[in-house]
Amino acid sequence: MRDAIVIGSGISGMVTAVKLAEEGVSVLLVSPFPSERSQSVMAAGGINAVLTDCEPGDSVACHIEDTLKGGCYIAGRDSVTGLCESAEEIIRYLEGIGTVFSVDDDGRPARRAFGGQSYKRTCYCGASTGKQIVTALVMEARRLEASGKIRRGLGKCFHSALIKDGVCYGALFFDEHTGNISAEYADAVVVATGGQNALFGKTTGSTQCDGYTAGKLFTQGVELKNLEFIQFHPTTIETSQKRMLLSEAARGEGGRLFYLDKGKRVYFMEDKYGPGGNLLPRDIVSREIYGAGSEVFLDVSFLKESEIDKRIPEVRELCKKYIGLDIASEPIPVAPSVHFFMGGIAVHNDHETNIRNLFAVGECASMYHGANRLGGNSLLAAIHSGMIAAREIAGRDVVADKPDFSQAEREANESLAEMRNTKSVFPVMYIRDMAAETMNKSMGIIREEASIKEGITDIDYYLSIAEKLSYDNSVLPYFNYSLSGILTLARAVLTCADARKESRGAHFRSDFPDTFDEYAHPTIVSYDNGQYNTRLDKENEYES
Amino acid sequence: MKVKVLRQQSPVSEPYWEVFDADVPGDMSVAGLLDHLNYHDDIVDENGKPTTRIGWECSCLQGICGSCAMVINGIPALACETFVRDLKGSEITIQPLQKFPVIHDLLTDRSVIYKNLEKENIFIGEYKPGSEENGKKAQKEHVHQYEIAKCIKCGLCLEVCPNYVNGQNFFGAMFANDCYLVAARNTDKRREIKELYDEHFGSTCSKSLSCMDVCPMKIPTIASMAKLNRR
Ligand SMILES: Cc1cc2nc3c(=O)[nH]c(=O)nc-3n(C[C@H](O)[C@H](O)[C@H](O)COP(=O)(O)OP(=O)(O)OC[C@H]3O[C@@H](n4cnc5c(N)ncnc54)[C@H](O)[C@@H]3O)c2cc1C
């Protein structure tokens, strides 16, 4: 193919753009803000890879098995195999472009233990792995920007895709500089817009990940997958502005969870699951904390102060700065919070959606993590998926004739102008907040039919008024037009949760606490004129 | 408490001050305060007159993305890690960064940061470390590179710098640090980078080092300077 648009410039978007440009495809890399502002910079703990000099006993096969098991066996074996097999090459690539990994005495990437994994295989860069990778990738992208192969479209937000008869030819973008919506055409479009945080208000992640793109594409015929699987990170702290994550590294380095019973510490994870209990997969730890019934603490204070400062200095600094607590002398009060979305845009193994020439990569796509993601696997997946999509796109033929979408462009601008002309003090952000409250209530760690149904009723109501809401002048036009897409996605999430009448991984139903074989497949959800239809992918349509 | 915000409706309109009343706890950050002013109720000024919500930018809300850089009580800082309890006096003043064009209220256009790095081709290209260092020294060097790569491109170092005007010729501390990262990670580029460093930083910097005081990532710019000046 000759050209491509990549939407989103976090790690997955940048990798896709760099790899496409290296293959000679000319790339428009779109995001409202620079890569330094993307959620990817927040990834702390690390990236998983079984390297040639791995711990004795470890193997790529073992990484594959851990990933499939962590995901409760609904991720495809082929795609997971591809992911784990490419991990060593990915680490080499990242080293090669200058990422500053933490290294051992021989200069080899150091590795740490991470939840749900049989061996120490998480490579890391201090406690800012994502940031260090972003820095290296930004430089790579800059190299290709300088030679004109990548063009950055900063200040642009996705509006809708240009789709005709099941084929994608480009997208409409709202441009913050001009205030208009305009069309960009390309042979392929890659969506790399990250997770769906805004559905839940303030989560551990970035406010930029709002799920709008997935929601809008859904209404345009793109199928979504596994939306009911939402990962709660077990150890987050409450601050006055958001819930902040304490890296799993704190438990990887020996941190212990406990609650107090009549003043006595109960190490409930170790009591129930043995010495490795604190580091079990996140769904299990989150549920146990939730079920503890009293305030839970994470303790690392028994570690030497010098060890804390060497291995988890950021955790110490974060707690000191935001809650005024020194982890070297006190246990930390923690609780689970929404953190990662295993579900998202349904893609085939080459990361193409059900719409031809429309691809999705990174956290917005659903592929490798099944019902629960292992920490350290999402950075790996963000990079791997970008590489796979780029390879596929580069190898395809140029799209000869592109239909004219100028009418769609005109209509989008007209409807934006119409929106702008209404005035109200009632802000769109209130509806977003109310929807988030609904989602937190209905889609918590433990769910049941009645509250899911209530959630559906609420979101349907918000959807019914979303288009009639008066325009909120105080926020960017994007926030106004994106509301319906975000609410539609919320409705799709609830629909998936309602349909899966079992418990598996991160989806726990108190009315269906058991796991059933008949449900051992991904959920696919599609949209047809206001109807939300779900099915299980029993034929493995998307595993090809 | 009074909160005085320098507002501006568009890139071409005139700035003006607007004062708000807020009663918030001391452990709230300025980011939390802005959110509170905007959304705890309909927004009104100190006289109860309805006004528009305050424009500002955020992403991570925990000091690692650089979005919310602004000037708080005269000091360039990130709103998400500046706490009300640490601000002296009964009034808080909040202004947009002054050395970058204002887009809307506290939102500024910092694209010059990227344009300058792109213009001068500041990228590693390929990892080719030097062979001359080993042992303790290599470890220290590694730590330094790690610290530089944490630069969030927030622009605070440029805002506070007495030498930085608008990024026409002098590119400021973040440029110097990126230069060092490139030179250290790809030794083939040392000479070329040294020239760019001299041209856009070394020859003009008056070493006030105020950049280091405001850097949210605590990047030791002086160490980058020492090493690049030596090379
Ligand atoms: C606190 C925290 C710690 C984490 N730690 C780890 C870890 O240790 N290991 C690990 O593997 N994973 C970790 N993760 C998860 C990991 O960071 C993400 O899964 C990964 O970075 C996602 O990358 P991405 O490129 O898909 O998306 P993002 O980095 O979220 O980028 C999304 C991009 O899309 C853009 N965008 C959004 N909406 C639009 C729109 N409408 N139009 C145009 N552009 C848009 C954004 O501006 C941004 O550029 C962590 C996550 C968090 C929040």
Write a structural description.
- The complex is a heterodimer of chains A (544) and B (231).
- Chain A has 544 residues and is an alpha+beta fold.
- Chain A starts with a strand and ends in an 8-residue tail after the last strand.
- In chain A, helix 13 (428-442) packs antiparallel against helix 14.
- Chain A has helices spanning 11-22, 60-70, 77-96, 129-146, 212-219, 249-252, 268-273, 282-292, 305-311, 313-323, 377-394, 406-421, 428-442, 449-466, 477-499, and strands at residues 3-7, 26-31, 47-48, 111-112, 122-123, 150-154, 156-164, 167-175, 181-185, 188-191, 224-225, 230-238, 243-245, 256-261, 264-266, 296-299, 332-341, 344-346, 358-360, 365-366, 523-528, 531-536.
- Chain A has a domain at 231-339: Succinate dehydrogenase/fumarate reductase flavoprotein, catalytic domain (Flavocytochrome C3, Chain A, domain 1), CATH 3.90.700.
- Chain A contains 15 helices and 22 strands.
- In chain A, the strands form five sheets. Chain A has a six-stranded antiparallel β-sheet.
- Helices cover 36% and strands 19% of the residues of chain A.
- In chain A, a hairpin with a 2-residue loop joins strand 7 (156-164) and strand 8 (167-175).
- Chain B is α+β, with helices and mostly antiparallel strands.
- Chain B has two domains: 2-108, Roll (Ubiquitin-like (UB roll)), CATH 3.10.20.30; 111-230, Orthogonal Bundle (Fumarate Reductase Iron-sulfur Protein, Chain B, domain 2).
- Helices cover 34% and strands 13% of the residues of chain B.
- Chain B has eight helices and seven strands.
- Chain B has a five-stranded mixed β-sheet with strand order 2-1-5-3-4. A two-stranded antiparallel sheet of chain B has the order 6-7.
- In chain B, a hairpin with a 2-residue loop joins strand 6 and strand 7 (107-108).
- The radius of gyration of chain B is 20 Å and the shape is elongated.
- At the A-B interface, helix 4, helix 10 and helix 13 of A face helix 1, helix 2, helix 3 and helix 5 of B.
- The site of flavin-adenine dinucleotide has 44 residues of chain A, from helix 1, strand 2, helix 4, strand 7 and helix 5.
